[in-house]
Amino acid sequence: MSADIRTRRSIEHIRRRVASLFVTGLSNVSAENIEKIRNSILKLELQPEIVENSDMSVSNVSTSNIDDEQTGRLKDVLANLDQFIGTQNGHLRFKLATKMVLALDQISLRQINTSQLSEDCKHCLAGNDIIYLSEKLLPENHADIERMIIGGLGIVELVHYVRSEFDPESVQMSLLILLLSHSTLRKEVLKKFKPLSSDKQILLGKKLYAMRNRLVAESGFQLLLQANSEEARIVLVTFSHNAFVTNLLRKEIRNSPSSYSKHLYHHIGLLCNFLPDSDEKLILPSTEEELARIATLASLLYLVKPSPDDVSLLKLLEKTSHPVIRSYAAIALLAAGDSDERKLKHNILDLEDHVLRIYSKLHLFKKGIIDNKFLLTEFNGDNPEIHKLTFEALDNLGDKQLLDIINPLVEETLYDSSPSARKKGLIKLVKSNSQALAWKVLLPASEDSDTVIASMAKKRLIELLGFEALNVFFDVSNAIFSTTDKLALEVRHYIDYFILPHIANAGDCRFTPYLNHLFVEHSAKKQKFDYDNTIKPILLNFGEPLIPFLGENLFASEQDISLAAEELLIEIGGEEAEKARAAFSKGAPPVETAFRQLTNPRIANNARQVIISEGVSTVPRLLALISDPRYREEVLIILAEFATPESFPAMLKLLGNPSADMLVSGDISIIMRDTGFSDRSITRHLITIGEPVVTCLVEKLQSDNWSIRYHATLILGEIGDSRAIPELIRLFHREDESLEVVGAIIRSFGLMETTEAVSIIAPHLADESRAIRLETYITLGRIGTKSALDALKESLSKCRDINEKKAIQKAINEAEMRG
Amino acid sequence: MAKLPGKNASEDVILGTVKNATVFLANLSAKGCLNISSDSSEKLQHFSHAFRSWKLVRLSALFDKLRQQLIAVDENSKDYSDFEIAGTISDAIFTCKALKTAYKGRLDDVRVQTALFGLNEKKAGSEKIDNLSLVKVATEYRNNGKKNRYIDEFFMEPEGRGIIYRQETRIEPLKAPPKSSLAQDVTAMMIAERGYLCEGFPPRQIVVTRQSVFPAALDIVSSVAEQATSNYKMIGTIYKAFRSNLFAPEVFYSLIKFNAVYSTEDAVYLVDEHNNMLKIADNTYSGNNLSFLNEIIYEKPEAVFGKVSSRGQDLHFSPLTIIDSTASIPIKFLHKNLHFQGLMKF
Questions:
Q1: Which of A270, A109, A136 is nearest to A192 (CA)?
Q2: Domains of chain B (ranges plus CATH)?
Q3: pLDDT surpasses 80 at B187
Q4: Which residues of B touch A18 (CB under 8 A)?
Q5: Minimum-distance CB partner of B83 among A19, A125, A156
Q6: Which residues of A touch B87 (CB under 8 A)?
Q7: CA end-to-end span of chain A, whole Å?
Q8: Which of B82, B244, B265 is nearest residue A23 as measured by Cβ atoms?
Q9: Strands B164-171 and B204-215
Q10: Is A314 helix (H, G, I), strand (E, B) or coil?
Q11: What ipTM was reported for this prediction?
Q12: pLDDT tens across A302-311, in order?
């Protein structure tokens, strides 16, 4: 225990004792108890560490010390204790006891210190330093490592794991194994081992390499490779124990066969008690495990070059009773160029190693020892890995030979009557990377009656042949587009997103049919987003080569296609495009285009302008479009723009020929509701017609419906016919008239500039309703007679609202201007 | 000196009661505190009530505390820590002394006055606030007896010197706590347009009479985080200086940075750049701590706001908020997020 902690504990102890005086009662404190406290304090002061530490520099404050101030306080406590025991006065005792508690509280407070991390942990924190850890792995003090790992690496689970096994050696190893099993930590750990000495690396690597855990074994392998010594290679060969490790080793041996040759043969020789210069049979070990190990090593022999001694070992191995070892030995002999091929044929058929088997078969096939049936047996199973490996081997043969070998399989596959058998066969064949085979197999398959097979073949064709494959689809594109099969869609997706942008940049005209399809499909289905964002840019990029087929599409029966084609032509521009468009419109003026593009939201505005500038002569054509709901709104906007007496009948027709009376009588709202037309276009027409409808409108002022009276009033105001004035005045005086109508009448007076109305409406300058007051200001301003001006001025002087004042001032200005 | 609280009673009466209380405490200590009579318990309660009615907040609270401690001794005498009682008694004694000094007009330390009498608005309003920008860094609920519940909100200036301000809002009984105008997780920025800064021990209380609140920008959060203390030794020194005043509160609020987390089997520490450790949890595997540990281990926040206290002779830090301007919730209040999240993984 450090001096620091000891001091702190004693102070705490003293504090507790003094505090307990309160609880047990100050009046019955024994002298013995006080003596104990005093001794504790004296002991504390006599601590040698205290003396040492009190001289320490500021940098070392973390170790506990009792400074002068605290010593002073402790002395006070001692004095208080003396006084305490010397008196029986309860009050004094109480005073002294509280003093002591306070002093000890303060001393205790002074003892508070921030503790520091241990050296080991600091080291780890500095950069999770694994070298430090690995060096610590070998010494016995596992507690240190534990602490480092918890503190520095903080792997809580690790600690629990470590606790469960208490053997220090295994603790260290298990720590490391856990670190190495961690996918991200592993690389770091291995890097940190690099500066270790070769011996240490081999020692550690050997242990790890023998582990069953794949990642750990691989780490061991890497470590041994890092060591890069003869000893390490021996370890690599000797301790290879499972398929995974053997694979690693195989790669390594392939890279540098010469450095492993000796060790491999030596170790196998050891395992089967081989003596050079003896012709006797080998004595194979009896245990399965050892046999398996020999087999594993033997599977690597074909990679290395044997010495004459080794060849004799191989020959002996070839004669053993163990079939697997026999096969491998045969292959190694084959590789060494010293084999009896007929024996080999016998030996290799049962080989489990696919690569070796396939290559040996190929070797024998080349030598003419076996025919292609032996090779084709590889396709009997359903293991795609084997098919792939076989094709990898076969593809190297050259197209002609490959086709010769594979022909029976192709025949069998493609001409089977059952689609499922064909599909199965195709799945095997598509593993080939040979273009020749692709043409031979995939092209016919792409026209298979079964769409799945066809799509699969097409997809693979595109993968293999890229642009060339598209040529295929110029003929079959209908098939792609007519089916919704998932694979066909995938093929199309592939073309659209990967191939099209390239061909668009290349501007290859051969692809126009496909583009045509794409265009027609997307523009027709109104897949606006797809079309605008993906297809259209490609088409525009393509540009002029598309003009012929776009020209054709102008005549398409579906209007969307036609419109999109026209739009594209306009955007592509140029002489050719203009020609195409001219051919379509047969020399008609642009108004024809305008009519067609009226529903196209992108250019509707321009189209409308063109038609409006063309004038009233377009009205019959506009009327002809009424039956199409898409055009209605546009037509109405245009007719409203015309708003001439001539267009009124057209308007009426558009509205389904309502009676004039009904129209004027304010049933406008009903018509609007039924036809979806805006209020403005109808009132505008009525206003334009003017005089003929005045009588009718005046009659409508008698209506019971306030809405009718309101509309009629406003229209009459706009028409400005003085015949309406008496009736409006009469209506104005109606006692139960609604506010809206009153407001409308006042406004109408303003529009008609009715001078006689001034006296009638002037009282409304003080109306309760703000809306009415505002209408009155405006109207009086418009009328602008002297009396109106006076009324306004008077109103201005009375008004308190700043906004209303502004409105009145505005009206006065207008009146003065007119006056 | 301005008139001290206690308007319903003359100073003589108050001083008389204080004296009685001292005598009572002395007698209690003389006899010992084990097995106190119900009379004594009642008397303690009477004192507490009387002091509260005269707004002698500290003394009243101490008598309440002492009563509770003594009752606990009755029930379970062996387990109770003696020096907590001794501490309370001596605290009460010194508070009585300080009160006497104060009534004689010789107590100059305004902070101690605030501690004794609570917030006296007329006096405390001396330092005015004018458009002080503040970022809310933590919220804490505080119970003062059964009926008095408060929300303490802690603020820091965006580019200040690490000074922490406290705003206190009383929760009216039977009413839901006042809702902030901002969503819970939004980092709030307040401009205290008008108000005053009260005297007292840090964090000093602010009373804001006019304010505008809106969400804070991220750079403001990072400028708050930059004010964090990165040396725990400094925190220890400040804490000691702070607590050396008898009347200072037991906890001290601080914004700290950390460099690493160190865990042993029975405690978790934050480690600063100088390898000083600050204990944040006594038990690694308790639920509340885990949630916090997860936060700090996974998110490596820029700073942590919390309370520093001493347990035994160790400094102890109780985190309230995690501050990280790059996180989706830049200032995260931990008490809203205390669900168990499983074993921590590193």
A1: A136
A2: 11-111 (no CATH), 123-216 (2.40.50), 225-345 (no CATH)
A3: no
A4: 83, 86
A5: A19
A6: 19, 101, 105
A7: 109
A8: B82
A9: parallel
A10: helix
A11: 0.77
A12: 788 888 778 8
